[in-house]
């Protein structure tokens, strides 16, 4: 490959980088793993060249999908305990000046609740749903990635779609109302008001903690309003109301830096999910502003 060809290939890849990162993020739920997948895609492109590729964007999307599928299968093979629960990195920003890659991720952003549902799918189902339903990749291309027929790929996406539609993943967007609900939840938790806590929660609420928070004493997952209310009753005294990427949540800080972020998903005015995030790499990406109470 000549220098000119190599430079053109690198330039052309950069044109699709944001798109590929969005595909990889939705597949993996991790920004760092998404970057790894995109880098692996570049390595495969640089090794093979693009002389005979008619649709380079399609080729790159297929390769990224294949890389992500391998990573998901490897992750599934390693997962032996609930401690391995991997909460997706939140990609939300209140910064109007976000860079183009960030804007591409936000353009048709998949919320944290939907990312969690996606992680419950089998790797091939997740790939079929993400590539077809979110990125409009034809089933014949998907079939080649999962080594199945186009009809089988269609069935994978259909099964995944039913799972996704069966979970209410559309969050409330009224920011003022969200703040009221989170503030009431915090007061009830501090006061040990079990009735008020249950009233704030959806009956099927789920509390999830990432491995960092599990290591400091939280359970990896708690389900149901009574159990989640019991977990928080009399606790969260040190937590403070905060804006997390512009959305109301809670943060517990110690030693002058955030240790745990409480991210809330609300639907119909009720808390349907609480995600406890303690991974320093994730917390470092968040815009946190503590609010007066």
Keywords:
single chain, 293 residues, alpha+beta, Butyryl-CoA Dehydrogenase, subunit A, domain 3, Nuclear Transport Factor 2, Chain: A, seven-stranded mixed beta sheet, 13 helices, 7 strands, 16% strand, elongated
As a percent range, the share of strand residues is 15-25%
By CATH reckoning, the class of the largest domain would read Mainly Alpha
CATH-scheme architecture of the largest domain: Up-down Bundle
Output the radius of gyration: 21 Å
Stated plainly, the CATH topology of the largest domain is called Butyryl-CoA Dehydrogenase, subunit A, domain 3
Strand line-up of the largest beta sheet = 2-1-6-5-4-3-7
SSE ordering: HHHHHHHHHHEHEHEEEEHE
Helix count equals 13
| Average pLDDT taken over every residue | 80
Low-confidence segments, ≥5 residues, pLDDT <50?
A: 80-87, 91-110
What count of structural domains?
A: 2
Quantity of strands, as a count: 7
- Give a short account of the largest sheet: 7 strands, mixed
Q: Which class of secondary structure composition applies to the elements?
A: alpha+beta
**CATH homologous superfamily caption of the largest domain:** PhyR, sigma-like (SL) domain
Helix content: 40-55%
Which outline best applies?
elongated
How many angstroms separate the termini? 63 Å
